[in-house]
Design brief:
The protein is an alpha+beta fold. Helices cover about 25% and strands about 25% of the residues. The chain is built from eleven helices and 18 strands. Strands 3, 4, 5, 6, 7, 8 and 9 form a seven-stranded mixed β-sheet that branches. The longest helix is centred in the N-terminal third of the chain and has 16 residues. It is globular, with a radius of gyration of 22 Å. The termini are far apart.
Length: about 375
């Protein structure tokens, strides 16, 4: 049924805010253009009102930290059939964009900006051509979301077409207007569909049941800690942490440190937990992760922020190596999403090769942890 929200002012007697309207959906588009974090704090706008070769104009085009694209369409007064059909038509055009064409789109959008430089400044990572592979998702933005639109989008997303809708509602608080946001589908589900997709025709295959994990940013998390205490983690924004929700107990994960290589394989034993709730087993017994881990002092200031806090998934390691012994070969699968379910031949090849490097990959007995002296982080 259509999404509806309500907001109350907190007090002894809660006071409901009345619903209102923006002057136009163009006003909403301008707000998103000025600050795309209204949709996601981990997207960067690269185009606006972009003309396609199919005769239409994409309202907004953004890029995510893994180089995948986000096609953003405002519903306006179009019917569910019209808006979804048009968005899919635009997506077919977006999928075929080359890195050079994307650079030109950004150049025009910013009056001379360099996409590669802007991406590295925004996300702290290089934008290579391999990551600009046409992967994309569709986001439909609406001030009102009706039942037919919900059903169509839900149907497509369940069939692994990465499409979502975000619903904005306006409330009046005195002379001020307050904007609320609600996603139709958990963005982690849509992102998972993007991460597992490939644009190369004829090269998609059934997922083999093995999860890929990117253990990124070694200036913010320690593989030694992860190996010692049995976990993987991600944080700094929901885009990075939300895909951890895909993992359930007994899932097997292969862990890659970007630009280094694969360092371990293990089985998940618990679902995701925020930093404040995660504990580790030390020689002195169970202790809060925020008191023990190497980078705990960096996690503490964000521990109360559900958007940016570090999140953890407990893992029983089957086989691991030191960071300095990371395994890498030409042709190995890589992705900046923290967790994904790849459906490419490259992933199957990668797992087959990793099984040779990590011979205990299918062991029923977790690898024994190294005997270490636990050193609490300075408080």
């Amino acid at each position: 049924m259509p999404i509806r929200q309500a907001i109350w002012k907190v007090g002894e007697q809660p006071v409901p805010l009345t619903t209102s309207r923006l002057a136009s959906e163009q006003a909403l588009e301008k707000m998103i253009q000025r600050d795309v974090s209204i949709l996601s704090s981990n997207w960067m706008l690269i185009g606006c009102q972009q003309q396609t070769s199919h005769g239409g104009r994409i309202d907004l085009l953004a890029i995510a930290p893994d180089g995948s694209l986000v096609l953003i369409e405002l519903k306006r007064d179009r019917t569910p059939r019209d808006i979804v059909a048009q968005a899919l038509d635009y997506a077919a055009w977006v999928e075929g964009l080359t890195p050079e064409e994307l650079s030109q789109i950004y150049h025009r959008f910013t009056n001379g900006g360099n996409l590669r430089e802007a991406f590295e400044k925004r996300f702290g990572a290089e934008l290579d051509e391999e990551s600009m592979d046409g992967s994309h998702q569709i986001v439909i933005v609406a001030s009102e979301l009706d039942g037919p639109t919900e059903r169509i989008i839900g149907y497509l997303n369940e069939r692994h077409i990465p499409i979502n809708a975000v619903f904005f509602q306006v409330f009046q608080n005195g002379n001020e207007q307050i904007l609320s946001r609600a996603w139709l589908i958990d963005p982690a589900e849509t992102q998972a569909n993007v991460a597992g997709a490939t644009r190369t025709k004829g090269e998609k295959e059934l997922w083999n049941g093995e999860y890929y994990v990117s253990f990124g940013d070694l200036n913010y998390r320690s593989w030694d800690d992860a190996r010692r205490y049995g976990f993987i983690s991600a944080g700094g924004g929901s885009w990075y942490s939300q895909t951890l929700k895909q993992l359930s107990p007994n899932n097997r994960v292969w862990v890659n440190i970007p630009k280094h290589g694969y360092v371990g394989v293990g089985r998940v034993t618990e679902t995701v937990l925020p930093a404040q709730e995660f504990k580790v087993q030390t020689s002195a017994g169970e202790r809060p992760a925020l008191e023990v881990l190497k980078y705990a002092d960096q996690y503490k200031p964000l521990a109360d922020d559900p958007e940016k806090t570090e999140y953890f998934v407990r893992v029983a390691w089957l086989d691991t190596v030191l960071e300095s012994e990371a395994v890498n070969e030409v042709g190995f699968f890589g992705n900046q999403n923290t967790v994904c379910k790849p459906v490419t031949p490259k992933w199957r090849h990668t797992v087959e090769r990793l099984q040779q490097y990590f011979p205990k990959w299918d062991s029923q007995v977790p690898a024994q942890r190294e005997e270490v002296t636990d050193t609490p982080s300075p408080s």
